[in-house]
Specification:
metal-binding; metalloprotease; protease; three-stranded mixed β-sheet; about 160 residues; 5 helices; metallopeptidase activity; about 40% helix; Zincin-like; SprT_Zn_ribbon; alpha+beta; 2 domains
């Protein structure tokens, strides 16, 4: 998997170098990205991170569009500096002029949302109102943090119920 993607990163750099007639330092490339983002460019560290799950599920478009998108961020930063907009005219120039690709800001890959547990808290004033807490907030309550109802100012209490969303 990384071989094709790394080859595409290199091809994008070679295209940019031919277009701008100058060399660019190669980035560190990692596959340590999860969640909804397909790729991220860390400008000051000259690093690219890609989502291996979205790459596996959308490899053709990912190689063509996503890799060029992220490389274009690094190239724009190196050419024009830190004060440019992330998807501004400089980045768009590189996407259109160098890579001959549409400057799409976001991908349209199907992202499977992971299921999360919600811990149901209740208030004394509103028996029908429930307050779903994340696992992190629930853990903070277990450590002594208190959360209060905005209406009656009493402490929210764990109902013992949990649901998966």
């Amino acid at each position: 998997m990384p071989e094709l993607l790394n080859a595409r990163v290199e091809a994008c750099y070679q295209q940019a170098e031919a277009f701008f007639k100058r060399r660019f330092p190669r980035p560190e490339v990692s596959f340590q990205l999860r969640g909804q983002k397909a790729g991220v460019a860390h400008l000051t560290e000259n690093k690219l991170r890609f989502n291996p799950q979205l790459y596996r599920e959308n490899s053709e478009d990912f190689l063509k569009q996503t890799v060029a998108h992220e490389v274009a961020h690094l190239i724009a930063h190196q050419l024009f500096g830190a004060k440019i907009q992330p998807h501004g005219e400089e980045w768009q120039l590189i996407m259109r002029g160098v890579y001959e690709l549409p400057p799409h800001r976001c991908h349209s890959y199907d992202v499977k949302r992971r299921r999360v547990s919600r811990y149901i808290y209740l208030c004394a004033c509103a028996e029908n109102d429930e307050f779903p807490f994340s696992a992190q907030r629930h853990a903070l309550v277990a450590k002594g943090r208190r959360y209060y109802c905005r209406r009656c100012k009493t402490t929210l209490v764990f109902s013992g119920q949990q649901r998966v969303e």
